[in-house]
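Project standup — Tuesday

K.O.: blocked on the structure for the chain from last sprint. Re-posting the sequence here as requested.
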Amino acid sequence: MDKILSRVSSAAGALAVGAFTVNSCIYNVDGGERAVMFDTLRGGILPDVRGEGTHFIIPVVQRPIIIDVRTKPREIPSVTGTKDLQMVNIKLRVLWRPVIEKLPQLYRELGTDFDERVLPSIGNEVLKSVVAQYNAEELLSKRAEVSNRIKSELIKRGAHFHLTLDDVAITHLTFGREFMKAIESKQVASQEAERQQYVVQRAEQERIANVTRAEGEAEAATIITKAMEKTGNAIVEVRRIDAAKEIASKLARGRNITYLPG
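H.V.: unblocked you, prediction finished:
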């Protein structure tokens, strides 16, 4: 019985050692990841990149470094000055990923936190250089143009550090208090100018109406004068009769009038 237990114990130990050895000789690369290999006998980081799946390594001699290669977002804030010396707070949203073929060089030069080392630096550099070419009003009116220029320059700078930028967009853009007060004052002045213009236009329309009315009355008076010259007092008598008829009609409709003598 003791011999059996001893054999079982030895077998279990051998299996444990074997499992540990096998586990030490393999490693897994998950989806969305790549691995670069550090080899102490071959001079450090090897030039090839390991893809997804299970791979073999030489324990102690080799060590895999797993790197996430999926597209990730990052926000880059910056405070910079415009062409007309206005301070502006601006934020960029960048979608980035490393160039897979350059992972060994990228890790050798910058380590695994290469995004922390590169993106804030080149982001602020590009923002300051591009924004300085526009004044404050142009940043608002030409926002799409500014965004495209920033994107173009940032893609070039990212490629220098083996980073691919899939998208770059301005997500936040505000100015200092002085500029915002100036904008509000300008809007108030513009509204007041529009109101004054409306008042002037209204007065001009009223003047034109008064002139037209006066011209019409003058023309009517001229016509009546000419008619009286031709017919004498006949036109006056006609007007008197019309007025009398109108007065009689109004009196006839009154409640207290029952008889109107002729």
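K.O.: great, moving the ticket to review. Residues 16-20 have pLDDT under 50 and may be disordered. Residues 201 and 257 are 51 Å apart (CA to CA).
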